Amino acid sequence: MKIYKKGDKIICELDYWQHKNNCYDPEEEKELTSNLIGVITEDDCSISHLIDLSYKDDQQIGMPIIQTSLEEEDFKKLCKEIGIDCHKYPSCSRCGKVIYGSYTMSKDYDKLCYDCVHELGID
Q1: Residue 55 sits in the same domain as residue 65
Q2: Into how many domains does the chain fold?
Q3: Which of 15, 52, 76, 83 is most buried when burial is the number of CB atoms within 10 A of its CB?
Q4: For residue 29, what are the contacts with CB-CB under 8 A and spacing of at least 6?
């Protein structure tokens, strides 16, 4: 990332690509993969770092780099315009908290976070 001032603007340049991270295959480490991903939660939309886990044939969403005040549809359009994927995290249908991992479904609720599952005594 490179941040600098140009006139009356602060410019933030983010690397669009990163080298794959595969310690088991040095040839694959020469390949490039996406470095950024759009992330949508109930509360906000951000552009986050995408952690490459090629050795596991996986990816992981890292820390947010740019928080926006855009509405979901406008943010999806932005992601499409700049050519990055977009991921939306689900929210618990009981308490409304963002669910960053796995969730449970029940006959009364669509998606339940761990805390609500525990409070309701669902096994």
Answers
A1: yes
A2: 2
A3: 52
A4: 19, 20, 21, 22, 23
Angle made by CA atoms 29, 48, 34, in degrees to the nearest 5: 30
* Amino acid 84: pLDDT: 97
Which pTM does this prediction carry?
0.87
**Tokens 């088991």 correspond to what residue?**
24
Same domain membership, residue 102 and residue 61: no
d(CA 105, CA 9): 47
In which domain, by residue range, is 62 found? 2-89
What is residue 54's DSSP assignment? G
- What's the N-to-C CA distance of the chain in angstroms? 45
- Whether residue 112 is predicted with pLDDT greater than 80 in this model: the reply is yes
Select from 79, 50, 75 the least CA-distant residue to 63: 50
* Strand 17-19 relative to strand 32-34, pairing: antiparallel
Q: How far apart are CA 57 and CA 22, in angstroms?
A: 9
Same domain assignment for residues 12 and 46:
yes
